[in-house]
Design brief:
One of its GO terms (molecular function) is aminoglycoside 6-kinase activity. This protein is an alpha+beta fold. The protein is built from eleven helices and twelve strands. It is globular, with a radius of gyration of 21 Å.
């Protein structure tokens, strides 16, 4: 089984080369075992198998010629619990707003899922057309969470515990400015709001463009957008806006930095309203997440990862823009993209 380099490298970085090679060597056995057991056959699709940093996706056909995929989660220690959480969330959504799970084998960390149109993710839409589609999808995923999911409130409480030490990372950083203390106070206040929230929705915490794929048309010709690869959490829906706002910055329709920042605030407002989220809460939660991302990147940079400084600069720009601060003449089109 050929494993795309992006998945091989990401897995090797976590569990090492020997264990990664052992998993890759076992994939042929596992896939063929499942074909026999679930009465499937491989579907020869150009470009397959597909992969991200966390999973391998192999197109298959059922006995009835239904188009599905086998999704193998990478066997990293982090994914042992994460795979079970993802599977639980997808089964709770049951194909409504998220990809449908048909069968699963936890010992192989594999699911048989419906096949979506992998080339048609939400990034194919112009930015102006995104809010109503994303908002409708977010609403469709909004169901009460159960107790087994990690709570946003507990995650954010951890951020607050380390906030002062993390904020010290800005000292001496060339991108930081004298007015960023107000931004940090704003972020801390919204962290406190998130940590004290009594909302308990099952949320997809990584609901960005590339995790939203077009479904295949039903018998009436209607197709819908569906979420994949959830990072399931329990908590307030305002937490879900951030990944859409820190992607596709190079496409913001202006060349002037402050106009770009104003456009992003307007876009965030449209997203929030379409999703039934208070816009100020959505932007505040995004700033809280982006400031936390910035801290993470700065810690990585202090450990020798120079490329992380560009990531930190992007998180700072998004945070300043949504806060309504001066973006210091930095053009969004020049920021390092995610990934």
């Amino acid at each position: 089984m050929k494993v795309p380099p992006v998945l091989y490298r990401a897995t090797r970085e976590i569990i090492g080369e020997y264990r990664t090679d052992s998993w890759v060597a076992a994939l042929d056995y596992m896939a063929n075992e499942l074909l026999d057991r679930w009465k499937l056959r491989f579907d020869d699709v150009p470009g397959a198998p597909w992969a991200g940093c966390e999973s391998l996706v192999i197109p298959v056909l059922t006995q009835e010629n239904y188009q599905g995929v086998l999704r193998f989660a990478a066997p990293t220690s982090a994914h042992t619990a994460a795979h079970a959480q993802v599977l639980r969330a997808l089964k709770m959504w049951n194909g409504h707003g998220a990809v449908r799970v048909i069968r699963d084998d936890r010992s192989f960390r594999v699911t048989l899922q419906e096949r979506l149109r992998t080339k048609d993710n939400l990034s194919v839409l112009p930015l102006a057309d995104v809010p109503p589609v994303w908002g409708a999808l977010q609403r469709s995923l909004e169901i009460p969470a159960t107790s087994e999911f990690l709570r946003v409130q507990d995650v954010v409480a951890g951020w607050l515990n380390s906030f002062d030490a993390d904020a010290a990372l800005l000292t001496g950083w060339s991108e930081a400015g004298p007015h960023d203390s107000l931004l940090l106070s704003f972020a801390r206040n919204w962290m406190q709001t998130l940590a004290s929230s009594d909302e308990n929705w099952l949320i997809h915490a990584d609901l960005h463009y590339y995790n939203i794929l077009a479904g295949n048309p039903d018998p009436t010709g209607i197709s819908t957008w569906k979420a994949i690869d959830p990072q399931p959490l329990a908590g307030p829906t305002a937490y879900t806006l951030a990944p859409v706002l820190w992607n596709r910055l190079a496409e913001i329709p202006s060349d002037h930095p402050q106009a770009q920042a104003a456009w992003l605030r307007g876009f965030a407002t449209d997203l929030a309203l379409c999703a039934g989220v208070d816009p100020q809460y959505g932007m505040g939660a995004t700033v809280a997440r982006e400031i936390t991302n910035m801290f993470w990147y700065l810690r990585a940079a202090s450990g020798g990862s120079n490329s992380s400084l560009a990531d930190a600069a992007r998180s700072l720009w998004v945070s300043r823009a949504l806060f309504g601060a001066d973006v210091a003449g930095v053009n969004a089109h020049a920021l390092k993209p995610i990934g």
